[in-house]
Amino acid sequence: MIGPAPPFTLTSQDNGRVSLIQLQGKVVAVTFIYTSCQDTCPLLITKLAGLQVRLGPNFGRRVSFVAITVDPARDRPEVLRHYALAHDIDLTGWAFLTGTPVQIRRVAREYGVYVRTPPRGGVDHTFLTSLVDQRGILRVQYLGTRFDPEELLGDIRALLREGSKQ
Questions:
Q1: Does an H or E element contain 93, and which?
Q2: How confident is the model at residue 68 (pLDDT cuts 50, 70, 90)?
């Protein structure tokens, strides 16, 4: 257990407002990506998308995935929606979020994600996926894109079991 997950309220791919508090009662995986990324972000999203099916009826109902852009200048809601659909994302259990540059910098920093925009373009950022339990407690973080999806799936299932005992 790491501590309370940093709160956020951002704009979704459908122009709605999504906050962590709205997702309380669910296990939530929070990650950071940007849509023009050509290498590691698509790998991460593909890895997570593979888990949505394996979670079965819990996905969307008891488990949510949140992908927060680190490139809010380009990743407007419609861009995020197109990206999600291009990656076969089940939007009943996902939220792709954007906000102002100040909001995004704050949320990234609070989750321990380093973000930098180099002069050559693109975005450099830490790949960190955070798992938040049903009570809004940050329980574990997975660094990089090489984490084992089986480990994440096992941790999600363990949190679901733990939550059903409370």
A1: none
A2: very high
